[in-house]
Fold this protein.
Amino acid sequence: MRAELEQLLILQDRQQKIRQIENEIKTLPLQRKHLESQLAESAASLEVIKQKARQVEIDRKKLELDVGIRNESINRLKTQQYQTRKNDEFQAMGHEIKRYEDEVQKLEDQELELMEQGDKLKVEVAAEEKKAGATKDSITRQMSDLGEKSKTLESRLQELTKERTELAEKIDEDLLDQFERLFASKGDSAIVAIEHGVCTGCHMKLTIATVKAAESGKEIVSCEQCGRILYIPA
């Protein structure tokens, strides 16, 4: 029975490793999704600030156009003013010119503010582009690492699965069935050690008879409390 217990311990080790690798493989899509989300957020942040810079430039050009239209009106009125001989018309045109000039001054002040905003945004855009580039490079590397990790895990899983199959073929069918049921229900620990008369699976005190039976190594002994297969560490 000692030989069978040793085989069961090896089998359990392989199955624990298989389950661990399977769990790791399951997390890979989530890790990829997280990285893709980070990349999308970085791109979105860059686009937001670029759009803000574009809008400022659009608004500035609109102001520039409005200034041009008013300057044309001023030039037209000045030409008409010099052509008229009526004092009241001359004065009315002068008031219109003054109104347009005041509007031009306000528009140019607004345009200057937008130019300053635009200059600041150019700096912010450049910084955000640099940051986005670094993020993209980092995520590209991490994606590549995940790809390599996936290949390594799949390869290791195949090796362990093959090894596990070969080990299982050498174990008595009834004992293997008992082990499999325990492994599935007890959280990866179907066979556990006895330490100081205690089952290390459920941590309950064992009877003297159970401990003695395990020490003899003549039969498969199970814990009275949790049902796990017991063995005495070498």
Observations:
- The helical segments are 2-83, 87-168, 173-185, 208-216.
